């Protein structure tokens, strides 16, 4: 069974962000009935099969498999901040207390970035911002909790959730997954490590 033109357009749009209503509108369905149309389309076997086939084709072309996604999330969730910055306290003697004769110490806390060319690819992918401002050095990374929750959802670790997705086709021999992009920051998705 072949898809109608609207169904084909729906499948193509749905692959972009998984939003049925948006995909239905992009396929030419009325905005007023787009949610109902999306629900109906997603329940049709031929649309489900077309989505599955398109996803397999994307995996084959891109090399991005569920296993690769999980490995990227795991690297982001387990980044140790010491891979990115070092810190230490330095004490210097400034003189003697005239009453007790004890040394007066000046304690300075220093934070230093690891040179970017010394970062692992996983550490570099997990860092979203490095900046120096009035309040000092700031390093932002992917939010560990968000990454762990995404892993848990993929693996079906929450009660009532579907189990892990079936294993998909492997990328072609010699294909390498794309280098991870720097994730965009958003209000709910990133945490600040240092101020």
TrEMBL record:
InterPro entries: SPP1-like_terminase, Terminase_Gp1_N_sf, Terminase_ssu. Residues 162-195 are annotated as: Disordered. Residues 162-173 have a biased composition (Low complexity). Keywords: Viral genome packaging, Viral release from host cell. The keyword Lipid metabolism does not apply. This is Terminase small subunit. It comes from Pseudoroseomonas ludipueritiae.
